[in-house]
Amino acid sequence: MTFGPGAWGVDEAGSRAIFDAYRATGGNFVDTADIYGGGSSEEFVGKFIRDTKSRDEIVLATKFGFNGSRSPLAAGHDRAGNPHAGGAGSKNIHRALDASLTRLGVDVIDLYWMHVWDGVTPVEEIVQTLSNLVQAAAQSASGNPSQRADRHQSNRRPEAADMHPAAARLRKGRG
Asked: What are the residues whose beta carbons fall under 8 Å from the beta carbon of 44, sequence distance 6 or more?
């Protein structure tokens, strides 16, 4: 959901109306991203979930990957940018997840998507980082929705070639 300021966004009142209408029809999967509305989308979604006390009824997903410090969608984008504030490396995944958890006001994200692969981070680093986060229970699953199979297979490593081309899902039971 792209809530918040910007050409693709909608203000808080309009966002709340969309959220409420979606929930009233039985919607229970909410997907946003750290870059949407410069982070406002995550803030709105978290607020709406808290206001409606619906966290246990919703599968909450968000995405990471773009460099927010260089994005025109982010406040202060005229800066030179932070080279560690984007991409699929471990440092950015941890930074982005911490920021998303704070904006959403939750302890766990159910599905953490890689919005875009940076083309340079080894797939093993991405999978290991996301797997470690699943084990730490910061997220229930992680994904890579837009990765082509040949990208993984070009690494010629079994771990990469065995990944599903649409999503690498890492599940952790909630015991």
From this structure: 3, 4, 12, 15, 16, 19, 37
Contact 127, 159 (CB under 8 A): yes
- Write the pLDDT tens digit of every residue in 26-48: 999 999 999 898 899 999 999 99
Query: What's the pLDDT score for residue 118?
Result: 80
Asked if 88 and 130 count as a contact pair (C-beta separation under 8 A), the reply is: no
* Whether the Cβ atoms of residue 58 and residue 28 lie closer than 8 Å to each other: yes
Nearest to 43 by CA among 69, 71, 75: 75
Q: How far is CA 48 from CA 16, 67, 70, 76, 123, in A?
A: 7, 26, 28, 26, 35
Angle at 51 between CA 24 and CA 63, to 5 degrees: 80
Band (17; pLDDT cuts 50, 70, 90) = very high
Of the candidates 72, 80, 116, the one whose C-alpha atom is nearest the C-alpha of residue 96 is 116
Tell me the range of 81-85, 123-127, 137-141, 142-146 where mean pLDDT is highest: 123-127
Report the C-alpha gap between 91 and 104 in whole angstroms.
20
| Residues with catalytic roles | 36
Name residue, tokens 């959901």: 1
List the one residue out of 107, 109, 151, 150 whose CA is nearest residue 130: 109
